[in-house]
């Protein structure tokens, strides 16, 4: 029987994303390693499912792919302990944290918010809901991404700087987590640009694959 | 009869906020005037209503008040024209964009996202829903805020840099607006710190007033 939380796209009200949670990815963009999780928000209006297209936002000349493991919150909570974190996980998704890298670089330089760079419509392509019992250990799953059949990202959640229990605990000290909310746990190295007509394919271990086409908006 | 949109706190899925939309406020924090609206997100989990308390987030030593006019979206849309913008307004709220100024200053300096500084739990105290016909011209309303009976902010929406129709149009080019979503339109000058035990009172013209107490979390 499908649980309510499997309808996270309709049910959830926020997406909390973590930046620079893989060492090699922080380095490839010339960033320092974070001393605490770096959090940003994407709105739920940015979700798309397979069959819908990723649209390059107006004015963006450098749209990047980032493949990520998403945690779907199954039980609400604030100030969740690391010990209790697993009990708040309702399931998983595979997600792309599509990023207007030029908007983000400008924001970083000026000290402006990242919201436009990270939250534009279609910036959060997702797989279907993955039952919790399909992934026995979320700290050891392979994440990969191809652009037009060429492998660009191939990482493992074992390389996260901050673990999933730590992320859930840290985030919930500031943001109350609600049923259907999603946490995007960061991307491994290999991010890069995509353009109109490109096809992105991504996969999570042997559990799920998904495909999205990019087009000009 | 109460409309569905009056339940924006439960119905809405995002809060899009505008930074530096009043000239004197941009200057008081030493910021340049924006050439386009500066957007950031607050999660709906940050809403509180009268009777609930504003809680200083863990580690914050400079919590600031910002009083703002909020637009509640009544009709969904993307790429809304300025001419059509008014028809997408479902009503209004008076809101506080509570800001962990120390977190924000650190984020600005490092080029990090603003989400924690702006989106922590209780960072969006709001009035009840205000029917659209209660405010005949949203571009000419007084906004004021007192801390412990001392007047700190006293502005008028007539001093906005980017008008409400322009904001709705610009935002909807990037973020699809949905029923119950809220736009916070920026704060006039006079922002400043509050501490545990302080009482904030705010008002919108002769339409509504509201009161919130601050406490350590
Ligand atoms: Mg941000
Ligand atoms: Mg990412
Ligand atoms: Mg503000």
Automatic annotation (TrEMBL), chains A, B:
Per the database record, which ranges form the Fumarylacetoacetase-like C-terminal domain?
Answer: 14-214
Among its keywords, does the record have Metal-binding? yes
Q: Does the keyword Disulfide bond apply?
A: no
Q: Its Enzyme Commission number?
A: 5.3.2.2
What keywords appear on the UniProt entry?
Metal-binding
Source taxon at top rank: Eukaryota
Reactions listed under catalytic activity = oxaloacetate = enol-oxaloacetate
Family, similarity comment: Belongs to the FAH family.
* Name of the protein: oxaloacetate tautomerase
Q: Which organism is it from?
A: Mya arenaria (Soft-shell clam)
């Amino acid at each position: 029987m499908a649980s309510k939380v499997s309808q996270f796209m309709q049910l959830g009200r926020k997406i909390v994303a973590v930046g620079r949670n893989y060492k090699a990815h922080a380095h490839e963009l010339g960033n320092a390693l974070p001393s605490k999780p770096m959090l940003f928000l994407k709105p739920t209006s940015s979700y798309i499912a397979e069959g819908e297209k990723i649209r390059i936002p107006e004015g963006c000349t450098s749209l990047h792919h980032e493949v990520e493991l998403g945690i779907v919150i199954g039980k609400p909570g604030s100030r969740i302990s690391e010990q209790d974190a697993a009990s708040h996980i309702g399931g998983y998704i595979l997600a792309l944290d599509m990023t207007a890298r030029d908007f983000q670089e400008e924001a970083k330089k000026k000290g402006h918010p990242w919201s436009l760079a990270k939250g534009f419509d279609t910036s959060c392509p997702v797989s279907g809901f993955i039952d919790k019992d399909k992934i026995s250990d979320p700290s050891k799953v392979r994440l990969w991404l191809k652009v037009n059949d060429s492998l660009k990202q191939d990482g493992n959640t074992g390389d996260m700087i901050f673990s999933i229990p730590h992320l859930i605990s840290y985030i919930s000290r500031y943001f109350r987590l609600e049923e259907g909310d999603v946490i995007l746990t960061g991307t491994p190295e290999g991010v890069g640009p995509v353009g109109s007509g490109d096809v992105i394919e991504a996969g999570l271990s042997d559990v799920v694959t998904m495909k999205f086409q990019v087009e000009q908006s």
